[in-house]
Amino acid sequence: MRALALALALLLAVPAAALAQALPYHADPSAREIVPNLSSVPTIRFLTTADFPPFNFRDDKGELIGFNVDLARAICADLSVACTVQAWPWEQAAKALEDNQGDALIAGLAMTPETGATFDFSQIYLELPGRFVTTVAAAKGFVPSTLAGKQVAVRKGSAHAEFMRRYLPDAKLVEFDSEPLALEAVQQGKADAYFGDALRAAFWLNDNQGCCDFAGEPYFRPDLFGGGLTIAVPAGRDAVRLAIDYGLRRLKRSGVYDELFLRWFPVSFY
Fold first, then answer.
1. 203-108-249-9 Cα dihedral, nearest 10 degrees
2. Which residues contact 16 (CB under 8 A, 6 or more apart)?
3. Fewer CB atoms < 10 Å away: N or C end of the chain?
4. Which three-class secondary structure state does DSSP give residue 53?
5. Using the 8-state DSSP alphabet, how is residue 40 labeled?
């Protein structure tokens, strides 16, 4: 319930400064546009889950909402095709897609050799980088190398902790059981910086405005932080996959994608 309340609070509290924030861009602007044959895709039946706010979850009225839900519907609207979005339990969603209960799964299914044997994937529509967080004053002109010998808060056992050990071994890691606890250490002056999942940090920053800020650039490391969010389709269903990719590119160019991103993530983590 706390995650649901936080997601709804973010939705209702979009600061004006959000319009100036860095936004995702995962499509190659120089790539030649291939217009698919949409006559073979009269409808797209999207599958998702209902337990992953702010991407896909149910509001207090039981309605399925979230960034992924809005994105799926926006793709259909842009392509002028009929659209349904149906929620399945996470442990059943991929099997439902495999059994032709839907045409596409937008629920964060990871691209792995195992899933690649059964599904094809759209282009990446969102990556989840790692980022530093410091006090507002320290964020100005931040340079990671200055953290040598200083305390950096991380979540215990995380890929972000491993990143720090590999690339900033001279920093003194302070490990916590969760991202909020690690971020609170910066807020309370018990650590000089935080490094971790930028999405979770963005939620925390929105709830603790004036304390801290992202410092430096986002770090995209697929080998550590995952390959990004994509939409899965049954293997060989090229018409649906190409239509989805076409829709994603058009939504980015038209600005609709950016509007959806800022609606659900008013503190950009890019």
1. -30
2. none
3. N
4. coil
5. G
Single-letter residue type at 44: I
- Angle at CA 24, nearest 5°, toward 19 and 29? 110
Mind listing the pLDDT tens digit for each residue in 202-255?
A: 999 999 999 999 999 999 999 999 989 999 999 999 999 999 999 999 999 999
Q: Which residues contact 55 (CB under 8 A, 6 or more apart)?
A: 66, 67, 68, 107, 108, 264
Identity at 21, one-letter amino acid code: Q
> What's the CA gap between 257 and 56, in Å, rounded?
16
CATH of 130-225, one of 3.40.190.10, 2.30.30.50, 3.40.50.2000, 3.30.830.10: 3.40.190.10
Residue showing tokens 């056992």: 157
Alpha-carbon span 90 to 105, nearest angstrom: 11
Question: Phi/psi of residue 124, each to 5°?
Answer: -70, 130
Smallest Cα–Cα separation from 121: which of 56, 26, 3? 26
Helical (H) or strand (E) element with 154? strand 151-155
pTM score, whole prediction: 0.87
The CATH superfamily of 2-127+227-264 is Periplasmic binding protein-like II (3.40.190.10)
